[in-house]
Every structure is written in C-alpha cells, then in structure tokens.
Request: fold
Amino acid sequence: MSLDRTSLIPALKNVATRLRIDSVRSTSEAGTGHPTTCCSAADLLAVLFFAEMRFDPKDPHNPESDRFVLSKGHAAPILYSCWAEAGAFDRADLLNLRKIDSDLEGHPTPRLPFVDVATGSLGQGACAAIGTALNARRIRSDYRTYVLLGDGESAEGSVWEAADVAAMDGLDNLCGITDVNALGQSRPTMWQHDMEAIARRWRAFGWHAIVIDGHDFDAILDALAEARRTKGQPTMILARTIKGKGVSFVEGKEGWHGRAFKKGEELDRALAELEQQFVGAPAGVNLPAQIPKPASRPRAVDAPRPVAPPAYKPGEEVATREAYGVALAKLGEADPRVVALDADVKNSTFSDKFEKKFPERFYQNFIAEQVMIGAAMGLAARGAIPFPSTFACFLTRAADFIRMAAISNVGIKMAGSHAGVSIGEDGPSQMALEDLAMCRAQPNITVLYPCDGVSAERLVALAAYHPGAVYIRTSRPKTPVIYGNDEPFVVGGSKVLRQSAADRVTIVAAGVTVFEALKAHDELKAAGTLVRVIDLYSLQPVDRDGLIAAGQAAGGRFITVEDHYAAGGIGDAVAEAVAPAGFTVTRLAVREIPRSGKPDELLDRYGISSRHIVDAVRRLS
Amino acid sequence: MSLDRTSLIPALKNVATRLRIDSVRSTSEAGTGHPTTCCSAADLLAVLFFAEMRFDPKDPHNPESDRFVLSKGHAAPILYSCWAEAGAFDRADLLNLRKIDSDLEGHPTPRLPFVDVATGSLGQGACAAIGTALNARRIRSDYRTYVLLGDGESAEGSVWEAADVAAMDGLDNLCGITDVNALGQSRPTMWQHDMEAIARRWRAFGWHAIVIDGHDFDAILDALAEARRTKGQPTMILARTIKGKGVSFVEGKEGWHGRAFKKGEELDRALAELEQQFVGAPAGVNLPAQIPKPASRPRAVDAPRPVAPPAYKPGEEVATREAYGVALAKLGEADPRVVALDADVKNSTFSDKFEKKFPERFYQNFIAEQVMIGAAMGLAARGAIPFPSTFACFLTRAADFIRMAAISNVGIKMAGSHAGVSIGEDGPSQMALEDLAMCRAQPNITVLYPCDGVSAERLVALAAYHPGAVYIRTSRPKTPVIYGNDEPFVVGGSKVLRQSAADRVTIVAAGVTVFEALKAHDELKAAGTLVRVIDLYSLQPVDRDGLIAAGQAAGGRFITVEDHYAAGGIGDAVAEAVAPAGFTVTRLAVREIPRSGKPDELLDRYGISSRHIVDAVRRLS
Reply:
C-alpha cells in the first residue's frame, strides 16, 4: 500500500466500524443471523480486504485475483459488507439479507460471484482453500488464497486434514486466519483464549503460526506481511478476538451466538455505540479505490483435444476401475485442466495411471477423504476439472462435503471404486452399498455406472464435460467388454442389450449385475421365456422414456437388480421413472449387512445373482 | 505380571512369532489379506495381550474387562490370532479366514464376541475407544481401553477429533498405540519415520506421547506401564516399526500392502524364516494362562423405570426438536444407561435439557460430529444407550461412521434436528434434505420422524429400547400437538389422520408436511373432494399393510409429500411398500438446491406446501 500507517490505520478502523454497523443492521433487519461473530472478525477483514488482497470488485472471477474463503460461513453478513464496501454492489442491498429474492443468503453460496464454494457447514473452508491454492500452482499464477476460520470449527477433523495436506504440499500461497473469539454456539470453545495451545497445534502440523491481537491493526498488517514473506509452508494467523467486539453489552458474553439485535432499543443502543467508534482520518483517503487490481496477464486458452477412444477387444476382461484409470490418463492428455486427487489408494482405483503421466497434476491427500473432496471443490471453482477418487465406500467419509459441493454446484468428478458385495473377501467395511443413495439424493449430481471397459472410458470422458458434480461408480472384478469401441453413450441414456417382440419382463441392471442379467436372459431363453435386458449406465438423470418404452413392450413388468442396498439406488430410480406409466418394479438388492466371501458366493447369497433373477422372472411372468 | 523380564520377554517373543506365522499362514490360505501390516504390529500385540491387558478369553463381554479396539482393521488376522493364542477359540479356525461361513472376516465385526465395533474404515477406532473409555467412567469400572492405530490412518481428521475430545475429557484410562510402519497402501506415509514430528502432534493435542522402538519388548512393557501411571490425560505410544517385520524379503518394502504370500515357494520361504525366530524360553511359562482376569464385582442391574408420558395440551405449539429434549431428560430419569452426546448445538437440539439434569452423562464433543458418533458407538457396545444429536445435516459429516455403526449393529440413537427447508433463513447449508436417504439406505437402521410433541416424545422412548441403531428426525418450527398424550406408537406403524368412505387419494406425509396435508385436506373437503391423510412417522420399517389398505380404500392413488429431496425419502419408502399391490406414487419433494427465505415461503417455493398438494390431488382425481 502506498499509505503510511498513520493514514492507513484510521481509515481501516472506520472501514471496520462500517462493517460492524452493516452486520448489525442487516441481521436486525432480517430478524435472524450472527452479528456477534461478524464483529469479532471485523478488524481482520477490514485489513485483509482493504490493505492486503489484490482483487477487482467488479470482476471477482479474474483468474489472477487473490481468493478469500469464509470458512466460518455464519459470518456471511460481514463478507457481504466487505464486498459492498469494495464497490461490488450497492450497500443498500445489504438490508435484503436472508430474503427469498436476494442472493445474500444466510450462509454464502456461489450464487454470488465472489463466493467460490458454499460454506456454513463448518470446517470445510480450509479444504476448499487448498484447492484454490493448488490451482494457482496449476495455472502458474501468483494469486494468494486467504481463509478465515473460527476457533470453534477448528474442532472439525477436516481442518486437520487440511492442515496436513497444505503443509505437506508446502502451500506458502495459502494463509489462514483464525478468529479466536473463544465462544462457540452453546458454550466456550475447547481451547478458549489459550493462544499458545492453539499455536502449538498448527506448528506441530507444519504451519508457520503467528499469534496476534485480532483487534490490533498494526499486528494484523504485520502478520499478513509476514505470511507473504514466509516460504515453503502455509501460515496460520491466530487472532485473539472478542465476540461481539464493538457492542459493549454483548462483548465476550455467552448466549449471543446467532442472535440478531432486536429492532428498537436493543439495536439502537448497539448502533449508537458503533457510530461513536468512527475516528478522524486523513481527508482524501479512499481505501476501496486503492485495492490493488490483479495482473491481467494474457493466458492461452486451454483448448481440449479429443479424448482418445477406448481400444478393447470384444470379450476382453477388464475391471471398470482399471478402465477408469486408463480413461483418466487419456483425458489428462486431451485437456490440461484435468487433475486427479487420491487418498492413498491410487493403485486400487488405478488413478496411478494418471499420476505416472501427469505427476504435477496429481494431488495426494493420504488417507483423508474430506480434504480430497474439499480441495477438488476449490480446484473446480477455479477452472480445473478435478477427479477425486477412492473406494466408493470411503466417499461416504466426505458425505457432508459432497452435500456442500452440490450446494456449490461445482464440477467435481468423483469416482468410487470397489462398489458392492462383488469386492468379495475384504468384507462389508470395504463395500459401498449406499453410495448411489448418497449421490442420487443430491438433485444436481449426475450418477453414472459403467459395466465394461468401453462404457467406463466413455462415461469418464462424458463426466469431464458434463456441467456440475458427477459421480462414477466402478467395480472391482474384471468384466467382459460388451460394447464396441465406437458405441455412443450419453448422460441420461441406457442401452437395451437384449430384446425381442415377445419379451415378458424387463430386467434393469448396471455394473456387475448386467452380467447376471445376461446370464439369466440366456437361461430363461433356453427355457422359452424371453426377457428384455437394459444396462442403466446413467442413474441420474435416468432414461425415463427408454424405460417406459421397454415397459410398454414387455408387459409393464420390471425387475431391477443392483449390487447396492435396496433404498436409494437402481430400484428407486426405475420405480420413480416408470410410475407415471402405472408400472411398478420388483427389486433385487442387498437387504442385510453382508459379510466376507468370494464375489460369486456373495452375489448369490445376497440375492442378486442370475439365479435370483431367473426366479424373480418366473414368479412374475 | 509375576514373571521377571528375563523369563517374560523370551516367552513374549515366541508369542509374537506365532502371531506372525498365523497371520502369514491364514492370509495365504485365504489368498487375500494384509500379512505385512500384521507383522509390524506383532510385538506390540504380543505384549499388550499377554503382559498388560486384563480379560477373560472365554468371556470377552465381562463388563470389567479391558477393551481393545483394532483401529487398523486390516490387521484383522493378527487380532484373531491373539484371541486364538489366548484360548478364545481353536487356532485351527484361523485358516478359515475370509471364508463365507466363518466369522473371521476380512476386517473385524462384532459377529465375533471380542469385537466391540467393526473397523476397517480407517481412523474410526480412536473415536470408538473414547466411547468405551467414557463407559468405564459411567459404570465406575477401572477397566482400561487400548486402541491400535496405523500411522497411515492418522491422516484422517476423525483421529484428531478423537485426540481433542479424549484430552479435553482427561481420559487417562485410554491408551493409544500407533504402529508407525511408515508405509501406506500405495506409498510411504506422510510423516514416515519422523517420530518426533508425530509425537509433537499428539503432545500439541494434549496427550502424553511416548516414542519407542515397536520391536523392543522392554520398551513396549515400559511404555504400557508408563501409560498406566499417567494421570489426567490419555497416552499415545508411538511405536517405530517395520512393515513386514520378520520376513526379510518384504521388510520395509513398498508394494506388499494387502498382498498375501503366494502358496508354494514364497509362503514357504516366509514361514521358514519365521520359524527360525523362536527363541529358547524358560520351561513352564504359559502366558495365556497368566492373563489377569477382570474383577467380577457384583453390579446392580440397571432396571429402567417407566418413562414419564407426554404432557401436552391439544393444539399446543411445540417444536419436535424441543420435545426431543424433554423426552431425553425424561428417559434419563427413567434409565441410568441413557447418555447424551452433543457437538456444540445443545441449545438448538434441546439436548441441554438432558445436560441440566444429568451433566455426568452428557458428553460434549465440540464441533466434531465424527467423534460424537464414534464415541456413541463405543458407549453402545458397552451397554449404554447413547443419544448423539446435532443438526440433521451435520450428521452427514459422520456418514461413514453411521455406515460402520450399521455394520456393527450397535444401538446408537441418533437425533437430527432442523430437517428440511422449513428451517428457513439459514439457507441450504443448514438444511438436511438427504438425511432420510442416508439412514434408510442402511438396511438395519430404524428411521422415525415425529410431527408433534406427543409423537416426538413417544418415538424417542421407543428408540431407546428398539434393538440396533435408530435415527429420529426432528424439525425446527413449532407445530401444533395433534395426538393425545396416551396415543400409542409403534416402530413400523403409521396413523390415519383423516379418512372417509369416499376418499379419492391417500396423502402420505411426515413431520412438517403432515400439517400441509391436513390443510390440503380441509381445503379439498370444502370443495367436495375427500382425501385420506396418513402420518408416516415410521419410515423404516414402514407400515406396508397400512399403506396398502389405504390404497385399496382410496382408489390406489398416493401422493407423498416430504421436506426432503426426492430420492431416498418418503416417496421411495411408500413406492416400494405399495408396489406389490400394483400401486404407484406421485411424489412432492424438494427437487433443486434451495435457498434462504421464510419457512412458509420455502415450503411453497419448493413444491411441498398445501397448495401443491391440492393441485396434485386435483390432477390425480
């Protein structure tokens, strides 16, 4: 900054006072919100936005712009106030906070152009910030990422997953600030104002930690400068603050979390106090006008080339998880935006095929699925096409991140391997039997489930360019290639694998159960019963028209068969799709907690093998 | 122990060699498994089981028995070997590892009497161990809890949630041992053998950390003794080990994770090496026979008294979340086994009503949902009836723990508040719209969803005594009491709230949508259309017979309406239940990512208000 501190600090103090006034006023107008959590952070954010960050209020998505993630998302009102103060929109809009027709929601979402990922589920911001920091490396930009955490949310394990990964990756372009106001929602936080105890934790996790008084502007300026100078490791500024700072009758008091001041005497008293905190500042100082704009460097457009097609022989045995790895490497070749994230299972998911070719675009998260998904969210928000993959069952570890990814509508392309009982001997802890339910529950997550090598490669390529989040489910066992290398696939499609004019039932399968359905078809055909077999490789969206057409051709009788629990998977998807035509569905699915055994034994024991399909057809037809 | 170390250690060494041989042999027989991860832990477990823990191999559930949790669940073969060595079952059974008819599964599950909770999803064991350690306090037993972690899994955030909570609770009856073998599945671990870096982390989190050579028997004995002497804080023994220790050609080598030795030359070579490691030991030493048995103190039986009934007036406005708190406090009064766990939202879920009465049975986990659920699992496994509660959306943070709770079949009684868009202004990050899908996906989780104060209290009491895991969904807004205080409720039941002989449609609702359905009923009735209204308070199991009977009486037309996304919730539950009768369902549910607004505005905007029900009825009938 060009200003010396004797001019700068009074101006920053006045910004902070305005941010507090906005936060108090807008929450009172809404009748709901978290003014006291805004007040503790006001001085920190005043300095960060108006004396540190480089950004263009009118172009928040500028690729060279510093990023800010508000991990303590309930402080949303002050975030909005910062952007209004910076000139991004009219300050009067702040009074529309939390109204149904305003994008100034209770917690930030990317409906606002200056929000990369939705926050409000605590402990996630630092993970997303790793993603935006990694993206700076990817695009060779010197933009920095700042993330504001609460001390309360630092009890979330995901924060420590982020701490590990950021330190391991040496992300010195990442700066955390923890607003240590010592009060949680319902009680004092764990470590309260024991700043050294908190600092020990960050230092032990490999960060440069700086303890400051979060209401001392000189200290805040110094700490941010020190963070900028710190190389080879991320910095965490631990700022001792007072919740409700500036409003004396709530300062440091329990019972004020998530409470707006009541309009009337209570609000008036708070505002009157705050108004008195304006200080004399040198004339002509206009901090918003002095925000350093990001460099606008010319950048080559990342034009993707065509993805190399599958190259299998019919009948060749290949696991879809392996085809996923092949496809990922091909995608990496075609498009520099494609990156991959692992949680120490790259040799099982075959994402190591990508790592071998593109080690600089492969991000290892060790055994920490939350930060893997969170980092992918940050990467996706900044223009990368991230493929995080692990065992499908361990994606449930990141279920809340996946929920927030859906709310953020970011294009993370998740792949889960080792689906279902067909993994065999490792037993139920390693079997994903609820992953389809988890991902289908989110209305804007696309769910794809290939059965062979060709469909796996094609669906991975489709996933990369389909808008929003996608989940691809792969299987452990090898399965024969049934599609030609040129077979076309579309999101929302399905394939009729067997049909005749005399079909009595439609069997809908996906993944490994496609082969059980084909076996059942052959056995039934030999006995004179014809059935239609559909590969439902796209579960969300689902091919409603195709399914209804099959129903109309095959007596309106459907059997679904899935290597998944009964709720939330293929049976439910098909049942909802065909209901408008008046068709119902008989479901074959895993209906109890399974156990260890050989894959074929387990498919049979849990009712989803060809034998069970044949029986179900015979009962129906 | 009565033996001096010159006699003890050679005997322990021979135990360790037998454990290694068992682990190698059983995994080779299975053709799958993790022998090298067993070998690194063999010396640690030999000492722990045969020179430290007090237990009765024939009575693993003895309430005074020391507990052992194998957090690194893939080392299951050596766990089984320890129990076989101790005499719990015949050593020959070890060769049935991973077979479909054996309970010696790929990863441990409570199908085995000596396993409290299933492990195999990494990073969960320390959380469960907190539960068993808290339970010792609850029942005033001096039993100790030991948990063996891997260094790789220590990247999971849940481990650090556990670290925080155990330190905060001063659990000096808890002793962790980390088998630092420096190799993960696909690569070296994050901190490899930097023992001091690892120790710094545990110390920073408030633990007493001891660094040892994990193959030095004296050091292991000393460390366990030091842990026993350490008061006021938990101890973590950080044991530097070598993966594959004892089999020279794999020791410390990458590429051997999860690989059994091939039968034939490879296995023979490994076994030959191990056999040579037996040492001369003093005659007559029989370590298994010397395992100290737990005290068998007489204990009063915890006989529950009747739970005080609800005491509401008809029409009284009460939020089901508040009734949950009232019910929990009443349950606490009736049954000393009832405990409650919070994640810093007790004043929103109203679990603070329980805390006020029973502070010693209330466990605060701060903002850390994984350890809350994990600790509840450990408590439930040891006879407590734990009610962990938080906002329903934040239970998704613990989805993988809930999955493992289902596999463990432990009786945790989860309550999630603030379900659906009806929470209003806080916005989507705070709205649970996938929690029913998450819990219904598990085949053995009971799912209950009260709509008023009476049903909330009754369902909470039912949950306490219903076998297995239960999920109770509560709502934020106040709703009128519609049931009499004596109204009976059963798991798997439903209530017909409105009916006539001329009903044209059945509306199935639960929670807040019950009142939308009742409003729609009245409006339709005024216009001459009669509809049946069902309160589906039990979603899993579901009242199939009741629903089909309604369908038969009301033209086979169903409309479901739910404050939840379309997949995995009420619509799917009803559709599957009535399909055998040939009935289909029209679903009203939230079908896009919602936003902030007032509750009524949101119910209407997202298609689940009475107006939408009326429209749907008119379209159908």
In short: The mean pLDDT of chain B is 97.
